[in-house]
């Protein structure tokens, strides 16, 4: 096994095509095909499934790629340190539900990166895609929440995909509303007091099962519902329509002057945690992200 073979496999997995990978790597397609075949024979695994539509990574291949990319990152850092030339841009991806402290932790990863170029991804997406991204190695880490309503179903899915869940914080549900909302001065709010206001929740796409919802009060429980895909839209609707959503109570510094979090009178909990591939070591960027998000989650938890 050589670094060259690892680079070849990484590129094939990235573009999903041997011919396109060969073009990007400036090698002939037969050369690339033979290098991948030789590596698979040496390791006695199938890294890719081949079809007329291209190649897809097998489950064994996903596990191998996670380790291979760490090796390539380490080799790139060593070469850059001693030659001043980077041969591989650091890569890191996170998939998460819509939590501000996850964005803040991601920013710390970017700030800590000393490479002249990098390729980082932050996906704020739906619950099912977070699980799939981590399980298929598109993202190293996922961030999602568990409650009494969804915990059993989601933990079963995570176990099936060989993913682990590490709790970051447990919080009581809070109502997020604009500072000028009629209920903003209350010390706590009951679900019934919210009936006359639009309930804002995140759309989950085709996977609309209740246990994929990001909120402890799914839209099915409310009379007035508006579903959105991003936090900026939700914030505008919250302020412009006296809408509300329900979350952990951890507010972003960006909206601290406009949005208030009021405890919700609901016997439930919100457990926000990290989702990772079981038994796979974190990359350097992953370690920085996890260290920072644990710290930021601890700060948010202590506010409750």
Mind explaining what this structure looks like?
- With about 300 residues, the chain is of the alpha/beta class.
- It folds into three domains: about 5-70, Winged helix-like DNA-binding domain superfamily/Winged helix DNA-binding domain (Arc Repressor Mutant, subunit A), CATH 1.10.10.10; about 85-160 and about 270-300, D-Maltodextrin-Binding Protein, domain 2 (3-Layer(aba) Sandwich), CATH 3.40.190.10; about 170-270, Periplasmic binding protein-like II (D-Maltodextrin-Binding Protein, domain 2, 3-Layer(aba) Sandwich).
- About 40% of the residues lie in helices and about 20% in strands.
- Strands 4-3-5-12-6 form a five-stranded mixed beta sheet, sandwiched between helices. A three-stranded antiparallel beta sheet has the order 10-7-11.
- The longest helix has 25 residues, at about 60-85.
- The mean pLDDT is about 85.
Predict the CATH topology of the largest domain: D-Maltodextrin-Binding Protein, domain 2
Distance between the amino and carboxyl termini: 52 Å
The figure for the number of domains is 3
Mean residue pLDDT = 84
User: What's the total helix number?
Assistant: 9
Spatial ordering of strands, largest sheet: 4-3-5-12-6
Helix amount: 40-55%
Structural class by helix and strand composition: alpha/beta
CATH homologous group name of the largest domain: Periplasmic binding protein-like II
Short description:
By secondary structure, this protein is an alpha/beta fold.
Q: Key features?
A:
304 residues, alpha/beta, D-Maltodextrin-Binding Protein, domain 2, five-stranded mixed sheet
């Amino acid at each position: 096994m050589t670094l060259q073979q690892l680079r070849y496999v990484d590129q094939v997995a990235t573009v999903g095509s041997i011919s396109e990978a060969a073009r990007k790597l400036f090698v002939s397609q037969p050369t690339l095909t033979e290098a991948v075949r030789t590596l698979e024979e040496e390791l006695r695994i199938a890294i890719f499934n081949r079809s007329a539509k291209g190649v897809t990574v097998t489950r064994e291949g996903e596990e191998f790629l996670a380790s291979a990319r760490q090796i390539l990152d380490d080799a790139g850092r060593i070469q850059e340190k001693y030659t001043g030339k980077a041969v591989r841009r650091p890569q890191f991806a996170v998939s998460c539900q819509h939590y501000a402290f996850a964005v803040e932790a991601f920013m710390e990863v970017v700030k800590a990166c000393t490479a002249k170029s990098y390729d980082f991804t932050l996906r704020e997406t739906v619950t099912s895609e977070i699980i799939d991204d981590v399980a298929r190695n598109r993202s190293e880490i996922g961030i999602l929440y568990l409650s009494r309503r969804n915990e059993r179903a989601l933990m079963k899915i995570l176990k099936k995909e060989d993913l682990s869940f590490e709790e970051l914080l447990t919080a009581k549900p809070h109502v997020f509303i604009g500072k000028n909302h009629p209920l903003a001065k209350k010390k706590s709010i009951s679900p019934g007091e919210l009936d006359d206001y639009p309930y804002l929740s995140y759309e989950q796409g085709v996977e609309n099962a209740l246990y994929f919802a990001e909120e402890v009060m799914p839209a099915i429980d409310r009379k007035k519902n508006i579903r959105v895909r991003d936090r900026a839209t939700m914030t505008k609707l919250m302020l412009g329509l006296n809408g509300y959503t329900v979350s952990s109570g951890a507010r972003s510094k960006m909206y601290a002057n406009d949005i208030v979090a009021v405890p919700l009178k609901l016997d439930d909990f919100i457990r926000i945690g990290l989702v990772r591939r079981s038994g796979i070591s974190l990359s350097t960027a992953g370690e920085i992200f996890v260290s920072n998000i644990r710290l930021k989650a601890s700060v948010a938890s202590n506010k409750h």
